Amino acid sequence: PEANAILSVVKLTAGYGAAPVLDDVTFDVRPGEMVALLGANGAGKSTIMRALSGLLRPVDGNIVLDDKAVQALEAYRIARAGLALVPEGRQVFGEIDVRDNLVLGAFSRKDADLDNEIEALLKRFPRLRDRITSRAGLLSGGEQQMLAIARGLMANPRVLLLDEPSLGLAPAMINELFDVLAELRDEGVTILLVDQMAALALTVVDRGYVLESGKIVHADTAAALASDPALEAAYLGRV
Ligand code: ATP
């Protein structure tokens, strides 16, 4: 694994049934970085997120978090070790209120200071303060995404994993979302992001990896990826 990395993925192979979707995927995330995984539909981005969070057992390879191999651990142990997934489609608990959703985000911790940590998060996500006693299912899509991210942060993760956070949101809300992500990174939260909005993602992340049919085909700084004409045609032009 990469020295200085907080998360190293080494030669990861994973899939569903016999056919592997991911083939020898290697990348790393360093402390305080925001890193994007980019690629077309079906390239395997969500599959990486599932493998990282223990929802899909890798066939081969290593997932190393803080120098500890976690690929064989059960999902709740991976969460406890510090990988928190904010899944695609938000998946907040719709029948309970916003505060209880945040409390559940800390399920893997024994040290949570709930009142103070929730208060700190509500400063970051003021829309949630106004809705704190609302059932989460009644929030708008954008508010639910903010709640899903805030719930992920309640785990106090070493790396926050965000799978398609902008999916289905209105353009103004997407801009607000990326502003929040940039602020979190500036405060030192380490983030691994999967998003279809490649051009926009490259305006906020530090580095990116481009995935094609389950393989990493480009790895570079966000600025270099954003100005690469080949990538522009393949991925960025669609945005
Ligand atoms: P998208 O943005 O469309 O979600 P993605 O890059 O996240 O794309 P994945 O969801 O990781 O792609 O899917 C990668 C491949 O794995 C696709 O060919 C997909 O059809 C296949 N796949 C995904 N989930 C399953 C599953 N549960 N069972 C079988 N095949 C699957």
UniProtKB/TrEMBL annotation:
Source species, domain of life: Bacteria
Subcellular location(s) of the protein: Cell membrane
Family to which this protein belongs: Belongs to the ABC transporter superfamily.
Protein name from the UniProt record: ABC transporter
Source organism (scientific name): Pseudorhodoplanes sinuspersici
